[in-house]
């Protein structure tokens, strides 16, 4: 199952009824009694509010055969939104944007910062602004989402098996016959294609076959069971992967539920759905074959929904038809709120695939009382544009969605001014769910040029501009056009909450954002700080040079108009203070400064230390290379040496590369470059050290002869590196120079060729990793050395001849001579029995006797001048005569 484990199943949609007017009748009335104003389009949409008409006119230009019927719900729009938000009726997947999820009490755990799961662990409650977006029909009067308003009845003149195949394309049911597993686990087949079974189900249930096919795919997925499709007796059969449709469920083997009917929200919904499918005798239950499940489920849906006043996907998701067979806002097919829009697109694609998109279709579109305007604007909090800081490297775009062109990229820390705050206008539902709200911002790029573009709201940390008090409810300043309803949300309920009327209550000291959303898509945000009523200094301790001056002002948080304070110093021999908070240092030492509010006598204190100030600090290194995992202690020196406060704060510009302790101990984490900064607590003087983190030194390096003129160097693979550099000692000046660069972390050998026989060669190796065009090399490995010598040969075989034993061996590259050694089972001692030039690679041993076992080995020799260089003997080989 994919988008949602649901109470029953989701409706896609297809239409039949062609009608217009303001109505709320059952399907039969739509089909038989409403007339179509095909010749006068404007007259045909006269029952719609003006805010609907631009979207309808645009569709009419694309598809003049389509008609539209206004359905008057008689419901207040906001009342309907509140109802659909309550009682876990509307859910979104937890992986989607936090701006779409409710963090109200019961939906969010403020102490853990986690959303409360409402179904299968992945689904959480949707916020009111999310529900209002998906409930507002105007957002979906578009070519590919209009199908959520389509009548779902079966029309034998429009619906075809080939059209069903178009919906099933790419799924396990595409152009295959039905296979299934029975209760005993035996594979069975039915000589009916899935598409034909769906057509038969449509005819029996009077439900659109395209709807049936799309709904099943939404519920059970498209994947095939392992090994399928499978050809049996010349026919291709299909079987689905999910445990609800493959007959392999441990508790309910041989049972199928293609619609997840009965799979109510909670833990293990699949088992509940299969339990329902296995019990009872209605709707062709038990569903022990896929065909019975497909047909019985379609009849169930037709009986329970389509013929009960919920005859469009919209009505199935939002039961706002007061004349349906069920109470308002109940008997809704699903809790997954985005699915109705997603499945509408599936239906649209089915029509396109079947070349039926220009068929005369009718769409029944709800109309609510007090529909919000589409041009409403809002501003909350203090006046002026908001500012903020970018918190990640992001793309900037020409419009409010990832579908717009990229203008450029901006880095973390970039300051921006928020010009506008809007809902995404993307037609892609998945894109909306990830990045639903966008800021239009102005900023200065890296080249100093002024820019304006759109960025996703989640990538900007909004500055604090407004203050609210702990434990006190206070209204937001709200400026909204059209006097309409807005939906408010806090980013962090643990810091502050906001009610439906925009009253903010401080929960604990801290900062967060309050957001306001309108149905039109215009939004506003304000950064707030929650403060405790009373008086407070910004710092706990202040440093003042002797004879120096510093203005220290206490912050007063009170509901009283009089916020005046009186300042006093405990020891006036050390420092003095005037009525405005101007402190003067007199003598070295420490004292206490107190601020007391004049009305309610609230007090705050801080420490004053009169000091000999720090003028400069230096570090023992300005640049240092450190291998991954190693540490290095930075030591700071103060100027003057007798500065009163010799305390430092250490920081790293990139903790993922190198981190630093409060004592200045630097730990290398991964290759790269960063800066470690030491900052004096008093005076704020700084000193920096550039840290280059390099790979670890290579371990287990070895060198060995690889023939008479070669040496092979080998080392341990070092994961994550770009490659290795091999260095060789110059025999004349003993210095090491680069011999070769080997790319690839797994390429951990190198063969040095063209060497002199018998001479010793020495090597060292470094690993390196390339980052942004720069190579970070490790320190040298240990030095290893080797002398080229003749390679070790190999005896290919020993063979008894009539009067001898033939010893056949492989040629050794560069060999000038070979020596053959033998021992027998009598003496058990080796003796050289032959020596000859390298023009042959065999030897006939004629001094052999029957009944004796002989063992041989061969050695290659390379002669250079008058000196013979002997290789290692081959592995011995034996033969019995």
From TrEMBL:
Keywords: Signal. This is Beta-N-acetylglucosaminidase. Residues 1-23 form the signal peptide. Gene3D superfamilies: 2.60.40.1080, Immunoglobulins, SH3 Domains. Residues 697-791 form the Fibronectin type-III domain. Residues 383-464 form the SH3b domain. Pfam families: Big_2, SH3_3. InterPro entries: Big_2, FN3_dom, FN3_sf, Ig-like_fold, Invasin/intimin_cell_adhesion, SH3-like_bac-type.
């Amino acid at each position: 199952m994919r988008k949602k484990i649901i109470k029953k199943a989701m409706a896609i949609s297809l239409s039949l009824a062609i009608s217009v007017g303001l109505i709320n009748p059952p399907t039969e009335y739509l089909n038989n009694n409403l007339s179509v104003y095909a010749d006068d389009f404007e007259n045909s949409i006269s029952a719609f509010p003006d805010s609907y008409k631009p979207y309808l006119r645009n569709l009419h230009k694309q598809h003049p055969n389509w008609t539209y019927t206004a359905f008057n719900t008689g419901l207040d729009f906001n009342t309907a939104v509140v109802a659909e938000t309550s009682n876990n009726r509307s859910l979104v997947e937890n992986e989607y944007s936090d701006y779409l999820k409710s963090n109200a009490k019961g939906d969010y755990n403020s102490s853990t910062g986690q959303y409360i799961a409402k179904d299968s662990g992945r689904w959480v409650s949707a916020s009111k602004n999310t529900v209002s977006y998906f409930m507002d029909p105007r957002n979906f009067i578009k070519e590919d989402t209009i199908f959520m308003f389509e009548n779902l009845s079966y029309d034998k003149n429009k619906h075809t098996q080939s059209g069903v195949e178009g919906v099933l394309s790419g799924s396990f049911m595409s152009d295959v016959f039905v296979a299934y597993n029975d209760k005993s686990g035996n594979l069975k087949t039915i000589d009916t294609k899935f598409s034909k079974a769906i057509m038969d189900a449509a005819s029996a249930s009077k439900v659109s076959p395209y709807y049936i096919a799309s709904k099943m795919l939404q519920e059970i997925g498209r994947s095939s069971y392992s090994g399928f499709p499978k050809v049996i007796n010349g026919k291709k059969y299909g079987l689905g992967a999910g445990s609800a449709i493959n007959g392999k469920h441990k508790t309910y083997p041989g049972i199928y539920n293609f619609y997840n009917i009965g799979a109510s929200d909670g833990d293990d919904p699949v088992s509940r759905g299969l339990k329902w499918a296995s019990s009872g005798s209605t709707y062709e239950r038990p569903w022990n074959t896929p065909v019975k499940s497909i047909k019985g489920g379609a009849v169930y849906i037709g009986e329970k929904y389509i013929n009960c006043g919920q005859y469009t996907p919209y009505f199935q998701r939002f039961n706002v038809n007061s004349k349906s067979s069920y109470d308002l806002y109940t008997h809704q097919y699903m809790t997954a709120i985005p699915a109705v829009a997603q499945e509408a697109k599936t239906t649209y694609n089915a029509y396109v695939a079947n070349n039926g998109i220009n068929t005369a279709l009718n769409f029944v579109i709800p109309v609510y009382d007090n529909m919000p305007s589409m041009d409403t604007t809002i501003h909350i909090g203090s006046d002026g544009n908001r500012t903020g800081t970018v918190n990640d490297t992001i793309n900037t775009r020409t419009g409010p969605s990832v579908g717009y062109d990229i203008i450029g990229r901006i880095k973390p820390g970039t300051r921006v001014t928020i010009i506008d705050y809007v809902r995404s206008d993307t037609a892609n539902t998945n894109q909306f769910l990830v990045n639903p709200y966008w800021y239009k911002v102005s900023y200065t790029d890296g080249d100093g040029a002024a820019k304006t573009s759109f960025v996703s709201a989640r990538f900007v940390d909004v500055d604090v501009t407004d203050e609210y008090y702990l434990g006190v409810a206070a209204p937001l300043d709200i400026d909204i056009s059209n006097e309409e309803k807005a939906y408010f949300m806090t980013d962090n309920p643990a810091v502050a909450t906001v009610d439906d009327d925009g009253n903010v209550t401080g929960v604990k000291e801290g900062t967060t954002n309050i957001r306001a959303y309108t149905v039109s898509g215009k939004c506003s945000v304000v950064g707030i700080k929650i403060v405790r009523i009373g008086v407070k200094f910004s710092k706990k301790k202040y440093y003042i040079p002797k004879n120096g001056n510093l203005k220290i002002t206490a912050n007063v948080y009170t509901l009283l108009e009089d916020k005046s304070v009186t300042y006093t110093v405990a020891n006036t021999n050390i420092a003095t203070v005037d009525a405005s908070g101007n402190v003067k240092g007199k003598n070295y030492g420490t004292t206490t400064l107190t601020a007391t509010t004049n009305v309610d006598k609230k007090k705050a204190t801080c420490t004053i230390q009169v000091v000999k100030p720090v003028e400069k600090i230096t570090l023992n290194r300005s640049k240092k290379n450190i291998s991954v995992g190693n540490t290095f202690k930075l030591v700071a020196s103060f100027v003057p040496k007798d500065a009163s406060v010799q305390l430092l704060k250490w920081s790293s510009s990139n903790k993922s590369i190198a981190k630093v302790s409060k004592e200045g101990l630097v730990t290398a984490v991964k290759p790269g470059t960063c800066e470690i900064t030491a900052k004096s607590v008093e005076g704020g003087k700084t000193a920096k050290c550039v840290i280059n983190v390099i790979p670890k030194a290579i371990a287990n390096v070895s060198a060995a002869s690889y023939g008479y003129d070669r040496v092979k160097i080998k080392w341990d693979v070092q994961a994550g590196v770009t490659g290795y550099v091999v260095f060789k000692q110059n025999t004349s000046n003993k210095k090491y120079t680069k011999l070769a660069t080997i790319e690839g972390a797994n390429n951990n050998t190198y063969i040095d060729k063209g060497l002199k026989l018998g001479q010793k060669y020495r090597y060292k190796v470094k690993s390196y990793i390339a980052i942004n065009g720069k190579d970070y090399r490790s320190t040298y490995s240990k030095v290893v050395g080797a002398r080229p010598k003749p390679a070790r040969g190999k005896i290919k075989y020993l063979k008894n001849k009539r009067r001898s034993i033939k010893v056949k061996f492989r040629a050794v590259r560069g060999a000038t001579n070979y020596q053959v050694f033998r021992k027998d089972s009598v003496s058990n001692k080796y003796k050289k029995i032959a020596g000859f030039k390298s023009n042959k690679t065999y030897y006939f041993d004629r001094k052999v006797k029957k009944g004796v076992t002989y063992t041989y080995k061969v050695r290659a020799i390379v002669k250079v001048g008058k000196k013979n260089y002997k290789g290692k003997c081959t592995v011995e080989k034996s033969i019995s005569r």
